[in-house]
Structures are given as C-alpha cells and as structure tokens.
Design brief:
With 317 residues, the chain is mainly alpha-helical. Helix content is 44%, strand content 7%. The longest helix has 31 residues. It binds zinc ion (ZN).
Length: 317
C-alpha cells in the first residue's frame, strides 16, 4: 500500500517532536521559576555582577556593528588578560543582532530558555540511552523477540514457541490442566487428578496437565503456607487440603500478576516495602536456609529433578 501524501518525512517528524519537547520544558521552567520568569524577584550575584554587564556590552557592540575585542566593564576595565568568555558568548551575539541590546529582561528570559534547553538535552540523552538499552542482545533463554526502534518485547522460557494452526493450538491447550488465573477454571479437575495419583504432591504441582502455570517457586512456597510436605503422595491428601492448595495458588498467582514479581510473604511479615525488596527476598522457603515462618532449618531434596525446600515443623510428613 502506498503511503498517504500527507505523511511527514522522518526528520521533519523528529524536529517537530524535539520542538514540542522544548516547548514543554519551557512551560515547565517558567512554572518552576515563576518569580524569576515574571521578574518578581531578580537574579543576583554573578548573574547581575558579571554576566549582565558583559553581555550588555558585547550585545551593544554587535548592535552597533563593532567587534567587542576589549570589555571595559570586565576586571575593572583593566586589560589584564585576554578573556573571551563574555565577548564571544552566542546569546549576546543573538541579542545584539536581533534584539538591539541586552538588558535585565533579556537576562531573565534567556535564563529560563537555558533551563528549557538543558531539560530538552537531558530528555534527548535519556531517550538515546533508552534506545540503546532496547537494542541490547537477547539472553540465551529468549525464544521470541519483537523489536522496534526504541522498544523490544521478549518471550522467555515458554513451553512451546512455534507458529501453529488453530487446531494445533487447541490440542496444546487441551493438554493443560485448569489455569488458576482464569475465573472460569475448574478446580475439581485438579482435585480429582491429585487424589487419584500416587505421585508426590510436589511433583503433581509442577505437571502442567494437572495444574497450569505453577513453577518451582510457587510449588515450594504454597506447600509451606498450607503446611503440606512436598513428598506426600497425592492420594494421601484430604480433599480439603487439595482445595487449600488450589485457593493459595490462585491467591499467590493473582498477587504475582498484580505486582509483577513473586513475593509470597504477607505484607506485615516484611521488614521493608515490597518495592524495596531485593530479588529473591520475601519468600518463606524457596532458596532459603531456614523457614521464614518458624525459623526451623529446612529440608532440601529433589522432586521431579528440581530442588524442593520443606520445613519439618510447618510441613510434617
Ligand atoms: Zn516452618
């Protein structure tokens, strides 16, 4: 399809974006420095002792078509050393040629413009680094990556990542157990599978055709919270215990989605706000040495080829 005639070329779009950033920064600078911008309070110290007379002289010289090689207002008028700071300053050149001089008002307006320029530069610099971050090479576990100029989206560690037909998709999802994150999930399917199985509950929780979406962290944490040893066979559990596991999995997964991180401890048990927890903090047993609920040293063993953690006190066998 042909691009419409009204489409703007890239560089024009960029200029327009940069200009709108600058205008927003200008509004922000005027608002933040309102007393200065409105000249309610004047700038002081070096601004009026040095910059104002130097700029005033240089702009005046430019306005009258002479070149300010020597500034009588600088260093008490003594030609002590060659100092080009004020004479060649571009804002004095601009004010001299286009405004006819540099006064107190010019000083204040240009001060605000400088703040806006600095803000715009910082914004563009941050954008530059954001684009570079997005361009970082994907990790080895990434299976799918969608990339644009300044953003990238990655899919890490999916069960299956392939282009499939709708029938194949149905076949894959049909093999999955109930999904605790879905409102219409059927927990009885999970309960029946667990109660009929001789496999340990720690293994069943990781089998995606029994219950979908539970990994090693949630397996370890949920079993600790409901007080069940991961090595107990599914059929040795009471139906109420299975229901308690389901309810806790639902609660934890919803919290995880909302916070975009796995913190299983209750807010009251945490020593700091959730946003300040380090990676891996806020868990009772997963990769811990002692139980986060009672302090007992944890049993560490293997279930389904993955390390499991269990508290002998909270999760009796
Ligand atoms: Zn414990």
């Amino acid at each position: 399809m042909e691009a419409p005639d009204t489409a703007m070329p890239d560089h024009a779009l960029r200029w327009r974006t940069d200009l709108s950033v600058f205008l927003w920064m200008l509004v922000l600078a005027v608002a933040a420095y309102a007393p200065v911008a409105c000249m309610q309070y004047a700038l002081k110290w070096d601004m009026v002792d040095c910059y104002l007379p130097w700029r005033h002289f240089a702009a005046d010289a430019f306005a009258h078509g002479t070149f300010p090689l020597w500034d009588p207002y600088q260093s008490l008028g003594y030609p002590i050393y060659g100092d080009l700071r004020s004479v060649f300053y571009p804002d004095a050149l601009f004010a001299g040629i286009f405004l006819g001089g540099f006064g107190v008002r010019t000083l204040h307006v240009l001060f605000i413009v400088h703040l806006a320029l600095a803000g715009t530069g910082m914004y563009l610099l941050a954008g530059h680094f954001a684009r570079r971050t997005a361009a970082v090479a994907p990790a080895a576990t990434v299976r799918l990556r969608l990339e644009m100029d300044d953003v990238a989206w990655e899919l890490t560690g999916p069960m299956r990542c392939a282009l499939v037909t709708p029938d194949e998709k149905r076949a894959v999802t049909a093999r999955l157990g109930p999904d605790p994150l879905r409102r219409n999930a059927d927990p009885t399917r999970f309960r029946d599978r667990v109660l009929a199985s001789a496999k340990p509950i720690g293994l069943l929780l990781m089998e995606q055709d029994v219950i979908a979406g539970v990994g090693n962290v949630y397996r370890s944490e949920v079993l600790n919270i409901v007080g069940i040893d991961p090595r107990r066979p599914g059929r040795s559990l009471h139906p109420d215990e299975v229901d308690a596991i389901w309810a806790e999995v639902v609660r934890q997964l919803r919290l995880g989605v909302r916070r975009n991180r796995i913190v299983t401890m209750d807010r009251a048990e945490l020593s700091k706000p959730i946003s300040r927890l380090l990676r891996g903090e806020g868990r009772y047993v997963y990769k811990q040495e002692r139980c986060g609920r009672c302090g007992t040293e944890l049993d560490v063993f293997d279930v389904a080829g993955r390390t499991a953690w269990s508290c002998p006190t909270c999760q009796p066998g």
